[in-house]
Amino acid sequence: RLPEECAKLWRGNPGVDVVGYIEQITPLFERCRLSIAPLRYGAGIKGKIGTSLCHGVPCVATLLAAEGMGLTDQENIMLGADPAAFAAAIVAAYQDEMLWNKLSKNGLSLFEEQYSLRRGLQRLKDLIDDLAALA
Fold this sequence. Notes:
Blueprint: H1 4-10, H2 26-31, E1 35-37, H3 47-54, E2 59-62, H4 63-66, E3 78-80, H5 83-95, H6 97-114, H7 117-134
Parallel strand pairs: 1-2, 2-3
């Protein structure tokens, strides 16, 4: 549940929906043009980014948020190194239709190639094959 003090910060702002916990996220992503991941710390694959990419929704992220995921600025994600660059990346991705389409297509492709269930099963198979070869 979203704490009320957090909800109050955003409630009433045009274009901002304060929704809190969502049981099924796909319907929400079907309404979204962008997602943002303004993370200041974290490690490994960031679920916020992966979830956005697998729905074909471009993501604007901090450098730290995208770290270690094999993402490329302005190809499959938009990156912002500081608050001004982050804001500019949001505006560019939102307003530029060609950029949005490229980010959507390339982000979805990268997700499928690197993080999909199919890719995970292939990695598991390769690991088992490598272990079998050692025996």
